[in-house]
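As a warm-up, study this chain.
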Amino acid sequence: MKMLRKNWWVIAMIIVLMVPAGMSAKRKKNKHKVFTTEQAMTQRQSQLVANSSLTAVRVNPRYRNSVKQYAAMTVNFNPSYRVPNCVSYMLTASMVAVTDGPNAQHRRNYKFYADPSVSGCPEWWEYKRSGYDRGHMAPANDMRWSRQSMSDCFLMTNICPQDHDMNGGSWNKLELKVHDWARQHGKIVVATGPIFNGSGKRIGNNNDIVVPAGFFKVVLDPARNRAIGFLYNNREEPGGVKRHACSVDEVERVTGHDFFSSLPDNVERQVEGTFNFEQWQ
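Now compare it with the structure written out below.
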């Protein structure tokens, strides 16, 4: 006991030295943890920005346009024609794995409905007895990976009047092909919309919903720097998907829209100027 009292200051010094060392190690550990979390958040934010820039479309300035961002798709809506100018979204292999699996949302559980926040959006019943289908631009089959994405794709801002035979025939074949490409290639960007050139028909309660003369679809594979476009008349036509394939430049020429403008100019020229349907198989 006498020896402990004599050397009390030595013991105190040891305790003082030990406590800061432990606290310092703890601070370093916590600091490292916070830094890692911040890095992960920054990376996710960067990916979201990159994804949203790829799905952004510069709509033909001749058309009135309002942009509405939903959970899984970007809608460029034409309040004068009361249909979308273009609908774009990203589709990944992991999304497709859900849509094709046992946990996919079932179409029968969803109904068409209007978005009151978007000027000119029609009611679902304005298509009744019109002779045209309510054609999804972002297909329900691509949106079955969550309740929100599935619900949003049934909004009338995502809908155009489509010929029934075309919607269930040649156009459906294209949609299934694109769906399969997402599974094969990991991630694709898709933009779809109507072609107004030559549109003359109208439907709706006030006969003011434009019936498109045709439809387009463009697909980008950002990992491989390649893209392809498709042009369809709004009627069923013989022939397979390949028959309708073209370059993105050709779709831009027909529609007046500008796709994938966030890509570097040299990459954009390359991917939009050429296409090879066989490379996508």
